[in-house]
Write a structure and sequence with these properties.
- With about 325 residues, the protein is α/β, with parallel strands linked by helices.
- The chain has 2 domains: about 200 residues, Medium-chain alcohol dehydrogenases, catalytic domain (Quinone Oxidoreductase, Chain A, domain 1), CATH 3.90.180.10; about 120 residues, NAD(P)-binding Rossmann-like Domain (Rossmann fold), CATH 3.40.50.
- About 25% of the residues lie in helices and about 25% in strands.
- Strands 3, 5, 6, 7, 8, 15 and 16 form a 7-stranded mixed sheet that branches. It has a 6-stranded parallel sheet with strand order 11-10-9-12-13-14, sandwiched between helices. It has a 3-stranded antiparallel sheet with strand order 2-1-4, with no helix packed on it.
- Helix 6 packs parallel to helix 7.
- The longest helix has 15 residues.
- The protein is globular, with a radius of gyration of 19 Å.
- Bound molecules: zinc ion (ZN) (2 copies).
- The site of one zinc ion has 8 residues, from loops.
Length: about 325
């Protein structure tokens, strides 16, 4: 089968012919991968920013596909069903799995890092997090229901406590995460200020529902002038925009960090955090519950996936656009369709 393979960490991925998985281990499902989202995390994996990743490796962790076969101990899944699931395996028995916080599972293994990924025609995935994709959700939308939309429901509402009427700033608002963050925040009833460096993406960000778009690297002044500061910042860029994000917050504001494109560090202004009573929070991944909610939001049309479908053959240009910040929304591969 065809797959996007990373032969060595630090190298460039390429299209390769690899053996199809044959054995399906217990509690596992073999899927025919119909859609697979390209995440900034995949790019960071190729750059060696995730030390647990071991090459050679099939990349990718965002998927939707049809069940081909299931292993022993899998119940409730039939051949041919169209499903999606979490971007990593879960153990089912740690304190986090037992309290429905699978995103924090201490024994999880990410696809495309520690176990083979989903940029391939077929993939083996942990059956425990698989859910049926509801009618009205396209394969590419289903593929981004956990690592993008479900992740954002978790970050904005569960971790950030976003409430209707609050002012939410989204950084990197034209990117794969940002443009969906704008929509999820609107679906939660928030007023959304979108920050982007890209003039070309401003129109699409407005169409996604942003109340206010600020183009350029400085956005805090405008957020404070127009809204008196943000209740919440959804920080999808990380280190490059952190200083402006913290300056945007009003007293008692919260910042939820979901991405860090440089993998670099940031000197937190401790005095400001204390005196203004700020909260700086990290959020990772999605739970099964927030992934289901994401699928429902898409089925109802509250969140419309902003995706560009690309062939596996064209992975190089997709990685390139992601690296250069030119990607609007999410690139989604269609390996087996
Ligand atoms: Zn992802
Ligand atoms: Zn666990």
């Amino acid at each position: 089968m065809r797959a996007v393979l990373l032969r060595e960490i630090g190298g460039r991925p390429h299209l390769a012919d690899v053996p199809e998985p044959t054995d399906v281990p217990p509690r596992t499902a073999l899927l025919r991968v119909e859609a697979a989202g390209l995440c900034y995390r995949d790019l960071l994996v190729t750059q060696g920013k995730f030390p647990r990743a071991r090459a050679p490796l099939i990349l990718g962790h965002e998927y939707a596909g049809r069940v081909v076969r299931v292993g022993d101990g899998v119940e409730g899944l039939r051949e041919g069903e169209f499903v999606t699931g979490l971007p990593h395996t879960t153990c089912g028995s740690c304190e986090f799995c037992l309290t429905a916080r699978e995103n924090l599972c201490v024994n999880k293994k990410w696809y495309g890092e520690e176990v083979p990924g989903v940029f391939a025609e077929y993939a083996l995935v942990d059956a425990s997090s698989l859910v049926r994709v509801p009618d009205g959700v396209q394969p590419s939308g289903a593929a981004i229901s956990s690592c993008v939309v479900g992740m954002l429901v978790n970050a904005l509402r569960e971790v950030g406590g976003a409430k209707a009427g609050e002012v939410v700033v989204v950084t990197g608002a034209g990117g794969g995460v940002g443009i969906h963050a704008v929509q999820v925040a609107k679906a939660l009833g928030c007023r959304v200020v979108a920050a982007t460096r890209s003039e070309e993406k401003a129109g699409a960000i407005r169409s996604a529902g942003a109340d206010h778009v600020v183009v350029g690297s400085g956005f805090s002044e405008e957020v404070r002038r127009v809204y008196g500061g943000a209740d919440l910042v959804l920080e999808a860029v990380g280190e490059p925009t952190m200083a402006e994000s913290i300056r945007s917050l009003k007293w008692g504001g919260r910042l939820v960090l979901v991405g860090n494109v440089t993998a670099g560090t940031f000197p937190l202004p401790l005095g400001l955090v204390i005196l203004k009573g700020l909260s700086v929070l990290g959020s990772v991944g999605s739970t099964v519950r927030t992934m289901r909610e994401a699928l429902e939001m898409m089925a109802r049309g509250q969140v419309r996936p902003v995706v560009r479908e690309v062939r596996l053959e064209d992975h190089e240009s997709a990685f390139e656009a992601l690296r250069e910040g030119r990607a609007l929304g999410r690139f989604v591969f269609r390996p087996a369709s």
